[in-house]
Amino acid sequence: MSGMTMVRDIDARGMRHCETTALGVLLRHEGLDLSEPMLFGLGSGLSFVYWDSKAMAFPFLGGRVKPFELTRNLATVLGLDLQVAETTSPRKAWQNVAAPIDAGRPVGLQLDSYHLDHFSTKVHFGGHVVAMYGYDERNAYLVDTAQQGGAVSTSLAGLARARAERGPMTARHRSFTLAVPGSLPSSQDRIHRAVKTCATAFLNPPIANLGHRGIEKAARLVPKWLQRGDDPQADLARTAALMEKAGTGGALFRNLYRDFLAECAELLDSGHLRTAHSLYAEAATLWTQVATLVAAAGTSGDRHNLVQAGSALHELSRIEREAMQALTSL
């Protein structure tokens, strides 16, 4: 392998969230330019999970569907040709990304961000998604979120480790390409399908720690968080940072979903959409307040902050349930 292989005409825009950033790169190369909130919303990306187990040092609050589910949802709703490759062989995994790039197409990768050179904070997160558009003897050329530097490079050795990592949320050297069909479903069809998929899942969670029931569960358990773990104050600070800054677009992905609904309400004249948008505008503000209260509890060690966060979460469970009920009526 000599010299450099680069896909031409890449619009390397780093956005706020990793999976939507990668999808944006792949789809723009195919001539389809959608905003990040639109990618997130059409991928029915919004969810909620209160995740805790004996093996975990501290509970985790998640605001979106599982890694890669967003990509599958988006492909379904837009009728895209999604080609996914997985393998346990590092050699085959490399062929799976080199072949499309050699043929002039960018590739999406799911990997563990811990091993990427450009990551400032080294944490294991196996659900990280990037777009890859080139390589040379030493490096891979990637597009990551704006926060991680947008167009970046990482060593091929680090990339191989990131792809081979096993553990929570990892996939087996997963790579994927997207092709856009000649004609796309109308705005109305795609929006209706995407919001109904999202709302139905949110309103009918199979277990009590997902969807609106998960938010209600968090409302009950967050006030007890100071009695949890060896260093609850550090854990609280980290949790607040994850909610606001770790590629969520702020407010645990609620800002992105609010902006998606605003864009939908401009495309379709619907009272249900306008109702859901104003409720998610309210929810986004409240989620940022929850993060602020959790951070304050981390700094002060004062349980009162967590009790306030609990009542805000109780309110959020109701607001988001109402918003999603409006969306199922579309």
Automatic annotation (TrEMBL):
InterPro entries in the record: BtrH_N (IPR026935), DUF4872 (IPR032369)
Residue ranges occupied by any DUF4872 domain in the UniProt entry: 158-327
One Pfam family hit: BtrH_N
Residue ranges of domain Butirosin biosynthesis protein H N-terminal in the record: 17-145
Protein name: Lantibiotic ABC transporter
